[in-house]
């Protein structure tokens, strides 16, 4: 690493952002009132969503303007910034039209500036899912990516440098007119403060579930090697987007699958043995559940196959040392860390088959049990396991034919450590309301050393 790169990473780490999306209409656990948010945990919140309309203006859900006003007031009083996120999976229908001509781009940029001025916002976030791609049945055009750059230029001219411009993005850069990810996005980076990599929904619910949000292709066996935190950072930086302008997105939710699987997709080492059911060592949780981890290192972000027992535990030793000397001890330690079965009756998650489920919902259902050290153990008849190939946990109950793939305090802390050591702009969660109090954001903050 050059001295220049090292200094840039150090500067980025000093100002890394902890953020989350605040969905005004939530379909899982219910929106938290703005006045009840613990703003001390967040540097920035994305208000989700307003959506583009056929006139290149903005549509708002009923009551959302009032909620946004309350959010901005409460957040600013606590020193937290608020950014308006526009679009979303179900709200990207009119994006292609809104950026398709100079006149449309000007109208759309003016609409965003108007919202900033009306609500006292700190910036805008373009959540277009996705340029030159159908997404949720959206019109799209081969010129979408080029038109997006023209729009970002117009928007920056409107907003100046006092307001942020960001975008929620996939693991790879936007699709160009040749149908492939753009090879050079440096011009976009010049107009933007950051992009947020949505490192989730890699695998959804299925009879053969896989990890929702892999840290990396850590065993070299994933059928989606381009879809992980490590891969995304590599793909965007290779295309000219600085690491210091990349935020890593993490999920505060998981997926419930109707399945009898006890391993995850892509979770087999080269020798053919399952790499996902070996336990992690319990970590000492200090100061209300904060975790101090030493891995993974960002010195080399290439995706190398780790030892079978990697990447946990995180006790300061290398993965190889842990694998060689503490594997058998880990079994007993992890069993203790998981806790015993919950005193509640066996949890029935069949109503969630094929759906997303919030982390807090898993806790409230008794599938995850709060531990005295600030972590979460197994409950409700479920067995907790760890997928070493993606560095994520999962739960299974074969008699109930249910598998839950999700992220917890361990895996989110691990991703935040990676973001810190890679010199990223920060970490954001989808979504604030699905946290169990502030347990998950607390793990993120600890990983970023905030």
From TrEMBL:
One of its GO terms (biological process) is chitin catabolic process. It comes from the Eukaryota. One of its GO terms (molecular function) is chitin binding. Keywords: Carbohydrate metabolism, Chitin degradation, Glycosidase, Hydrolase, Polysaccharide degradation. Residues 315-324 have a biased composition (Low complexity). It catalyses: Random endo-hydrolysis of N-acetyl-beta-D-glucosaminide (1->4)-beta-linkages in chitin and chitodextrins. GO terms for cellular component: extracellular region. Residues 16-450 form the GH18 domain. Gene3D superfamilies: Glycosidases. Residues 287-324 are annotated as: Disordered. Coiled coil: none annotated. Belongs to the glycosyl hydrolase 18 family. This is Glycoside hydrolase family 18 protein.
